Fold this protein.
Amino acid sequence: MAKEKKLIKVSSRPKGPSPNSSAVAAALGVSNLDDSQKGFCAEREKAVRLLAPAGCGKTRSLLWRCLAQAQAASEGEITRFLVFTFTRAARDELRDRLKHDPQLRAVRSVVDVTTLNSWGFRYLKNRMHNPRLVTTSQDRYFTMTNLLQPVWQGHTKVKEAMTDNHRKQRAARQLMDLMDIIKGLGYRHDLHREYNAYEKHTEWLATHGMGKHVVSMLKQLDDLEIVDLQASKPAPVRQAFNNFHGFWCDAITRMYESAMLTLEDQKYWACIDLENAAAGRRFTTGMHRYHHILVDEFQDINTLDLNLLKAIAAVNRCDLTIVGDDDQAIYEWRGATPEFILTPDKHISPGYVSHILEVNYRSPRNVVELSQRLIKHNKRRVHKSVVPVSMSNAQIEVLLMPTLEESVEYCRTLVKQLLEDENIQNIALIGRKRSQIIPYQIVFASDDVPFYAAEDLHVLLSDAFDDLKQMLLLKAKADQPLPFGPDPVESLLKICDKVKRYPLNKSDRGKLKAHLLAARPRTLKDAVEHLYTYTGPLKGENVGGAMARIFYVAVRTVLAAKSVADSIRAISQHFEGLQKDYGKSLDDVFYTDPPFLYLSEYAERYGEDFAAFYQDIEKAIATLARIPPAEDDEQVEDDSWKRPLHLMTALRAKGKEFDAVILLDVNAGIWPSKLAETEEDLEAERRLFYVAFTRARKRITLLVDERVLGEHMAPSPYIQEMGLSIQGLD
């Protein structure tokens, strides 16, 4: 406990009364705030950290601090506040409270609530001619292939990726994503032009717990064949600098000069401009100056966010009040790190005063107690003693299911019962990974049970899922010759594009195609046999035909599979390329499991009936015809989120509440992920489970599987850490 206490800085007491301490006391006296909330609101220091566990009244405290600090100002002095939220939903909630709470009327006109992206765009809009946001997939592809073509033409490795027609589309999207990821990690085109500076920043990231993001960046560059991680020299970081960093610097500059901005650009260019203004002592003055800057969900910010916030504070000559919960830091996949909220003295400025909210107003008593018992197993955190207001207990059950199939069926029945329960207004099914939720999506769609699918679930609308369907169709016609069957050579080449994480390059494709054409196969199955004898270049190497045999085994296993389940299992296990369109797999190492293994187990029910499987799949896809809007969309027209049943991953559960929560596959290897190896990784996994568990208001069911994919599975260690017992079904 001694180590934990060092992280807390006890609030210093004012040396004397503030100019309007009586006004502050009067305002807080009618606020109904608890003592810990009042302490934060009345704190006279401006460099303040508020640690606010879930359900402890953080939003209310944040706004009342604005009121208290306004009341504390000298008579006639106008104090202005800038409040940053992490999402548009949080922004709208704060604005709504300001608008409708009569007690906050006095500060409505002096509190601006916004997101960093919105603030950055507004700032740049006043300094650029007609800036345009590049947000859609089509716009991003156009930007890379057209606007940036003169740039990548001058960078050999990027040019190779962009001029290979079979890799071009995915390369364009991945390059655009990677360019933004690099900005989020704090790399700069103006500060890191020389290798020494680039290497020093890379080392800084590793030192402060973000080394895995550097590794992820290098793996993506390896996927794009821009760096070669197998090469012994030069070192991967040096390769990244030599082969990509110059392109990145030139590309983002070209976009800025063309007034084309990505979402990260809104923050990146605003940060640079503000830093230059502060360095030139061009401070904000008069009615445009903010005296207090408060940042919500501070545990979720990345390096770019931190630098922008510090720059905004510098030009306004004020400190940052940071608000968040280190126990809910679950966005490390986007470059965030708990380091920033745990050690603000190191990363922002010395002298931070800390307050902790320790009264939970939202959750039932046992949910609070169990979740606190769980999260205390993390060492890299600030100790908190959270006390529940509610004396009622949620219904909590941990059920052992013999197989994943029976788990799906039990959940199907339970959800239908809960939907008929008048005391249950909404339900959430929460999984660690999207692959866990696909079977439930198909089940509820086939039963005509409406549900809201969080953004994480759009695997069924992805290129990866289209590839899966196309491969199953090719399998069905693999022994049919033209004209009734598929072109054997072209079909095999398309399949080979999916075996590894990136398609064949132009040279390898051409030589393999020549080999296959010379053999003149009549069917796809014939073509596969000729693949076995290929000894030309394949993925850069094919000594003695070794790589060709790997490809042969992958394709042959799929074609030889008899059932729907075996076919999907073979595709999922042998085709790394299907992960390419898997969204956060590029950022979150724990999303890189084969995407359709859970679907394969569910598909056992179909036997060899591929037609029935297709019908159910298409019906499930129809439920996702409208993709929920992203946080940055200005208008939200889709109201499907109002449906009582929600399917989501734990990452999407943060900030939400449900009467009933069902946690799926609460097994070791899933919670926590089997890919979590370091102590930091394991603590991040525990925080994610903590967030998922604390979403429940009335009932929470944890489903534990005895067997998954034919293998025995142990229960999650989190069950024992909370002191819960597992029940078998009667």
In short: The first strand starts at residue 48 and ends at 51. The chain has 31 helices and 18 strands. The first helix runs from residue 2 to 6.
